[in-house]
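Holo prediction. Input below; ligand is magnesium ion.
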Amino acid sequence: MALTEEIFGINVFNDAVMRQRLPKETYRALHATISNGSLLDPQVASVVANAMKDWALEKGATHYTHWFQPLNSVTAEKHDAFISPLPGGKMIAEFSGKELVRGEADASSLPSGGLRSTFEAWGYTAWDPTSYAFIKDHILCIPTAYCSYGGEALDKKTPLLRSMEALSRQAIRILRLFGRTDAVRVMPSVGPEQEYFLVDQDLFDQRSDLIFTGRTLFGAKAPKGQELGDHFFGTIPSRVQAFMAELNEELWKLGVLAKTEHNETAPAQHEMAPIYTIANVACDHNQLTMEMMKKVARKHHLVCLLHEKPFAGVNGSGKHNNWSMSTDTGYNLLNPGDSPHESAQFLLFLVSVIKAVDDYQDLLRASVASAGNDHRLGGCEAPPAIISIFLGDELTEILDSLEAGKDYSGREKTDMAIGVQALPKIPKDTTDRNRTSPFAFTGNKFEFRSLGSAASISDANVVLNTIVAESLRLFADELEKADDFRQALHELIVREIRAHRRILFNGNNYADEWVQEAARRGLTRLESTVDALPCYTAEKNIALFKTHRVLTAAELRSRRDIGLDSYAKMINIEAETMLMMVRRQILPAVIRYAGDQSASLLKAGEAGFPMPGCSAALGNLCRKIEGLSSATDTLEKVLNGKLTDGDPLPLAAYMHDRVLPAMREVRAAADALETMTDKACWPFPTYDSLLFSV
Ligand code: ADP
Ligand code: MG
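Structure of the complex:
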């Protein structure tokens, strides 16, 4: 057996293990819960818990944990040993059904956005049996959702599961209209491509900004960046190769379908893409992937940077969220298909996504908003802050001809109803050429490319699932009432294409003209996190999430508040780090350097070798030092001027409007000084070594 086959999933309590270890009845009951969401009987849970414990102990596990994803985009775990005391000072390893299904979590210091006051800090975790338990570092990890006792979602998994239910409910209604009775569930599939940087650990350790903020707050451009395009898909250095090999192995053991690895555009940047899977599992796996990337890098004396923009001047990192929906019978609803019947159904689902993206551009933008991602979106390297859809020429022409009442080859149509003609083949490669689009149709899936590299993919998928569920709900309401289904379907599709044409854009999303064109089209442009996050509580969005029982108004408010609060905190940490680095490292270094220079020049002059050019350069250096000093004072003043308020919005806005510009001034002054200072005197490693040393 190949190594991969041997180790794949060895630390996962997966279907094969369950089949082998559970009594037939129990297995069947659990399987039913997993595949169609039916409720789990407590007795069944007990049997499962016991089998899980035995399996985990055999694998050397000592503890178990309810592994969950609080609102700060990381994962949380609290370990409990499998022990129960016995008389006579002995113990027995125990794990009950109750402990498997539900946990108490006094996690009062995790952010709750006002959903839970500290005096009633207890929340509980509930097992998500659709995502397999696994062993990590001798801990049996049970994927769970995390809620307050009032039932409010305090995590990223609960709304994701709810949104998957919502999507399924509505998509099934549509499938019934097409006479499909085999499928009972529709599930979103997600394949998130993860970008990251690797830097040498010794260099990392010398930079407070990397340590505290995950990105460089200073750094003049290295003479070489990514302009030659020689890094993308280039040969992978052996140290990185060793890291990737170990990462793959660790991920495979956890059942993560790590598949593709390559160098990315920027120097020191790489990417890993797994094979797609059901959305909640993809989300769990992506969290594990990020954790493993960090852990494994350390073993290779490297540090993995997941920040969206660790270095200015070269590309930042994102995640491409490949998304589609398929039935439990394995049929991808975004697959154009071969028959006329399939084509009609495909077009309806396609249009449901187009409508969803147009109607809820603001929510999609909000779902990817963070301090880190703001550095990417809108730069000429990443999708813009404006959301639009790329369909490719073929599909666009098909929609055009439908709207114009022509058939796909441009002939006048005699039979108006769609579904009598199969779609022409849509070659996959032509759908993937436009890499500038934030939301691209790529053959049988959509690729939402605006996600930040450090964030959980949950938020974006919650929004995607819910907004598409809403389009499908409206379509189903209308079509279920129709007397002539085919005629009604045709009219609906044509009407919706017409109504949402403005969101389709096949051109260059990085061009300035697009910004103007998008404004003419009335598309939403939300430049920063501060503009984007308040959209969560817009009336239409509260109504949307309420209709589909995905998030309540209070839960939405908590997400808005936590997002804005972390935004303000992140920038505050960055600004404080800047002040520290300037005052304690950069200024002392450059002042010393200027002193040395002036002493040397003085000596040379006394010896009869005056150097007027160098003296002028020294004068310039000193003025720059003064400039840095005063920019730093300004930053400090601005930072001290911030006010706190009950609502985090004004503070976040202050950080954006006042603090960020002051930080930019400090950086510009410091970076200019870096280029004028003896390399040996510069107090921390510079871009050339950070980006080119591994
Ligand atoms: P790219 O050219 O963007 O690298 P790939 O075909 O390699 O495109 O796919 C990228 C990601 O999309 C992978 O994670 C892959 O598993 C995922 N993917 C492929 N098909 C689907 C699908 N139907 N639904 C969701 N994700 C998919
Ligand atoms: Mg891709």
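The pocket of adenosine-5'-diphosphate (ligand 1) is lined by residues 189-191, 193, 260, 273-276, 320, 322-324, 332, 432, 444-445 (CB under 6 Å). That is the main takeaway for now.
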